[in-house]
Amino acid sequence: MKIHNAGAFYCLIAILLSVQLFSCHQNKVQDSTRSAVKNNDSLDLSYENVMLAYLSKQDFKSAADVNKKRKGLLKDGYFEHSPYSAILRAYEYLLDDNIDSIEIALKDLEGQKLSSDLTVLKDYLGIRANFSFHDVTSGTMVAQIIDAKEYALAHESVFTFLFYNLLANAEYRQAEYRQALKDVESWYHYHPNKSDPHVAQSYQEMKFMQYIALHDFEKLKGTLDSCRHYANATKDSAIIMRMYDLQSQYYFSINNNPKAVEASKKYFNYLQASNTLNAYVYANLGKNFLNNNQVDSAISYFNAGLRFIKKHKIKHNKMFYYKNLQLAYALKGDYERAYFALDSTFQDYKQSTQRIEAEKINDINTKYQTEKKDQAITLLKTTNAFNHKILLQQRWIFVILLALVFSIAFFIYFRNKQKLLQNINQRILAENRQLILEQKTRQNQLNPHFIYNAIANLQGLISSEQKTKANQYLILLSRQIRDILELNREEYISLDQEIKSLNNYILLQQMRYQDIFDFQIETADLDLDEVMIPPMIIQPFVENAIEHAFKNLPYRGQLDISFREYENQLHVSICDNGWGMKVQKEQVSHKTSLSQIITKERLELLFADAKPEARIEITANYRDDQRGYKVEIYIPLVFYFN
Q1: Which residues of the chain have pLDDT under 50?
Q2: Which of the four, 55, 259, 287, 452, has the lowest number of CB atoms within 10 Å?
Q3: What is residue 616's DSSP assignment?
Q4: pTM
């Protein structure tokens, strides 16, 4: 590192002081390298339309249908990471009455940036998880619905109509029928699919329920006719059959009890045949039987409805059943059971009242804790602001003193460090040049050794007057010398070049020794053009095998060379079936040549920091007949990148 002038130093000091001075105004540091997630508007719109298609109809779909749809959407990689994935999963849990899982699914949305429509859907599903269409809605939940509705209205959400439906139902349970009728009108006004016969039929049906409660018989008949018209337009058998239920209520309201029982019985039989019975239809049929003075049938269906509620663990107001059972038993003269039914009515009312009171107390406690927490936060903010002013003054004093000390210290330090770093840089450059020169020198030590042996071989052929072979040998030798001159200029060559050079060299030796041995080179599945290797690493060991292992061998020699990948290393194996370490009468030995020592030193220089380290392993007498030599070379895998 070299410092040219003191200006850079003082610039660094100014930057450090600025960071120190203004750090008190920063609470968090944004990561500038954080990658932004691209929002795919078209896909989000298609997912929103899926939810709208499900929620826009009054009748819920089955959980199996939603599960099938969600699995189909998961084929899109974008949907899996989209907030709509959690929304659709929560909706599936809602249809499956798996309340606890709804909250778990919605928690996946925490911390995500949600659009207004996604926020509305999250609020709706969170409220629906604890909302009952068959019981009185608490004041806390009504407040939640109103807050969510106001948010949806403010952001012009397409899902605003959902909250008017909940409000209308809650107000109906609280006998606020005129307000419920207004919210039904608002539900239809904000509904995005008013032209759909299903939506129009639901709208007329909800108005029908309010008119019955308000005893507005003048509008009741016309509304029933409209319900029947739109029900037929839907061509949905379930909706068409539900008209019998509305007819029974209409006949009940005009005191035509026999027709009320008849219509109610038809609707009950249809639901029973389609295995879609609910607690409401038991209550309605029982009430119609009671009004028609069929007391035993009324008692039977009221008790069946209570068993249905208990079996399916439905959140349903049971007071209606108990009150009518008490009346039925009294009409029958069974006053003991009438008393127990009346007591059950009282107990159910008591539990309902206690639950509502508990919710009110919880609301008051929550409000108190919230106000207490707000006061504590306000006091903490005031204290922090005061402490902040004191801290800022102390920082100014500290920064000024620190600037003086750092200015003196860094000036002295960098002045001395400049000369020291210059000396270190010069020494490192000299050591690098020396290392490169030493490596090239060791590498080139192999060349004269090989050329000396090759010339001796050629001289032997000429002396034995084998001119044709000498000419062939000379051609191969010239190729080998050319390879040595060209390849030794490179630090690494491809494995393909190394194998071709080895093949050329072994052919030279076969000609010299008159084919007394065979050889084989295997490369497994290595990419010969991509794998790199230092030149002339393998040749010295091949030379030793041919020169010493096959000398005066009474049988045909075999030389096997293999290249393969082993634990992220290039494993090279050179095996022969020669004498090994056996001492014959001819005193044949397998010498450790100077070239082997040089090769080891080359590996140490080339792969000094490699893990695992480069190494050479030599195993004598590795064959079953206690003969042969195996040389194994392990070097790190090096690849060529264009």
Answers
A1: 1-39, 583-592, 642
A2: 452
A3: E
A4: 0.47
